[in-house]
Amino acid sequence: IDVQLNAGVVTDTEVNAAAGIVQSKLNMTIAATQAAAPSGTAAAIQAANGLASFNSADFDVTNGWVTLKSSSVALSDIAQIATNTVLGNSTLGVANPTAVAFSTVVDAGGGIKKSQYSTVGFLRRTGATSTSDGDYVVVAGSAGSSSSVGVGEVIVRDSNGDFGGRTVDVSNIKIDTNLAIDTSTIATGGFIRYYGYGSAGGVLIQDGSLAADKKTAYWNNAHEFKTQNGLSDAPVTCSTLTATTVQATGLTTGGNTTAGTITGRWTLTGTSPNESRLQATYSADLAENYEGDRDYEVGTVLVFGGEKEVTTSNIKGDTRVAGVVSNTAAYTMYEACPGLKNLVALQGRVPCKVVGKIRKGDLLVTSGIPGVAVASNGDAKVGSIVGKALVEYDSDHIGQIEIAVGRT
Question: Cys bridge to 352: 166, 265, 266, 403, which one at CB 3.0-4.6 A?
């Protein structure tokens, strides 16, 4: 018996729900691309669609639910956009990404608008939290100098790599890795120290509330003061020298006739006869000031008497001899002498007024002519000797010769 089903007579309700129909027996098409979604009746839509499979590199499928894998879309799969643009959202709210031009990324993004600034310089943020345009300013830059310090500007090195200004506030200064300038404190103040090479020695300028702390110290094993060209030693000018040891080739007040002062007790020390001494180049005597009844000329012979301490005598061989007035004393005493001071030579050589015949080495006494000496001719009493002649003299007129005083 040949039994056949007529076409189109089997309905859905007549098919067993458990029936497994081999997929190859279904008349289905392979899914294809099309310009728009299918429309029409369900049969038409179903006929337009077909079976599809998904690239396991790009998709995950679970129970028919298809999802994109994370980071699976290649850049080449994204639609191309216009030149010099980026994908973004330039609106002030949530929106789909669009192509945003490079030139408007900062501007349209609510950041710094470069068109806002017309000056040259460095952009500086002034607000800590806000990103508004008012929170940014342009700061100019320059190398600066002592005459044009560039207040509020950023330092920019000049063509030589240098920069200038007026005030630098730093903790210390190093030069070629060596500490050059630094400060420190003391009990009553502090000091600035200028170091030598290798950060050793140097000059220490100190100040404090105590007078003893207001000083400058030179830290080294020796100190030289040179002229500006460095070819010779330079003089040092100061009001007071106070030290346990002062070594110098010369001490001067700045001029031969400029007065200076030595205060304290000073001692010449040494281990040999010529090691320490005071010596005068041209000054030739030791003298002391005495108050006179008048101001007498150099070379005048004086005796003790008169209205004050010393005066002249008209007595030959007067035993009250004080000495001869000097102006070349190497060492003078009693500068505090009141009234009319007469510097009288006590020891050494001095010019002296003389008259008559005198031989070298003769003892000189008062002559009877006020202020003038004469040879004693062997008749000299104690206290009458003015000095000894150092040169010959023979004249009835009053002249001057050099004599040695302080000899008997």
Answer: 403
* CB atoms closer than 10 angstroms to residue 305: 16
Least confident of 242-251, 291-300, 379-388: 242-251
Neighbours of 323 (CB within 10 A): 27
Instruction: Kindly give, in sequence order, each residue whose CB lies less than 8 Å from that of residue 162, ignoring residues fewer than 6 positions away.
Output: 143
Tokens of 387: 């000095």
Token pair, residue 355, equals 């008259």
Report DSSP state, residue 268: -
pLDDT digits (tens, 9 = 90+) for 310-331: 999 999 999 999 999 998 899 9
Instruction: State the average pLDDT over residues 273-302.
Output: 90
pLDDT of 135-146, one tens digit each?
788 899 999 998
Asked if 172 contacts 183 with a C-beta cutoff of 8 angstroms, the reply is yes
290/302 Cα distance (integer angstroms): 10
Question: What is the full DSSP assignment across 356-385?
Answer: EEE-TT-EEEEBSSTT-EEE-TT---TT--
Amino acid letter, residue 19: A
375-378: long-range contacts at Cβ-Cβ below 8 A with a sequence spacing of 24 or more?
376/317
Which of left, alpha, beta for 356 (phi over 0: left; psi -120 to 50: alpha)? left
Least confident of 20-29, 140-149, 364-373: 20-29
Q: 112-137 b/e with 16+ CB inside 10 Å = b?
A: beeeeeeeeeeeeeeeeeeeeeeebe
Do residues 371 and 302 lie in contact, with contact meaning Cβ atoms separated by under 8 Å? yes
| pLDDT of 397 | 96
Q: Is residue 79 scored above 90 in pLDDT?
A: no
Nearest C-alpha neighbor of 300 from the set 363, 351, 359: 351
Looking at residue 316, the DSSP 8-state letter turns out to be: B
